[in-house]
Amino acid sequence: VAAGGLLSALIGGIAADHLSEYLESAPSVIAAVSSLAAMLLYAGVFWANTFTASLAFYGCALLVGECWYGLMLLQVKRAVPPAAQGQTITLVLSVATVVSNAGPAAAGALDPG
After folding, report:
1. CA 56/CA 20 separation, integer angstroms
2. pLDDT tens string 1-57
3. d(CA 11, CA 27)
4. For a tag on the chain, would you pick the N or C end, based on fewer CB atoms within 10 A?
5. CA distance 69 to 53
6. Integer distance in angstroms from the first to the last C-alpha of the chain?
7. What residue intervals traverse the membrane (predicted)?
8. What pTM was estimated for this model as a whole?
9. Which of 41, 47, 102, 48 is nearest to 66 (CA)?
10. Residue boundaries of the structural domains of the chain
């Protein structure tokens, strides 16, 4: 899991560096496309017919879906004045944590026991 996330971040950063020469919003585009692709791959995790296929979808989802993180921080850093970057990045990370914890909390609330 950690290796997949690290590799995804590296590939996303390298791709953003190269594509930023042609498109200023390349980090945002890469983050959005990779997140959407990861959602489709996570659907494959649940709909796979075998455990091996499910693990393959999961590994691919990790490789594709984790590159948004560093690219999002880069875009926040570009958009916010230096004096407010610390507060802004902390707020963005806090909101991301709350949102990511909402899914398991909702699943727990829906589980009848």
Report:
1. 31
2. 677 778 888 888 888 888 888 988 888 899 899 989 999 999 999 999 999 999 999
3. 12
4. C
5. 26
6. 29
7. 26-48, 55-76, 88-110
8. 0.71
9. 41
10. 2-79, 81-113
What's the per-residue H, E or C state across the chain? CHHHHHHHHHHHHHHHHHHCCCCCCHHHHHHHHHHHHHHHHHHHHHHCCCHHHHHHHHHHHHHHHCCHHHHHHHHHHHHCCHHHHHHHHHHHHHHHHHHHHHHHHHHHHHCCC
Identity at 37, one-letter amino acid code: A
* Residue among 65, 71, 69 nearest 4 (CA): 65
Q: Which residue has the tokens 């979808």?
A: 57
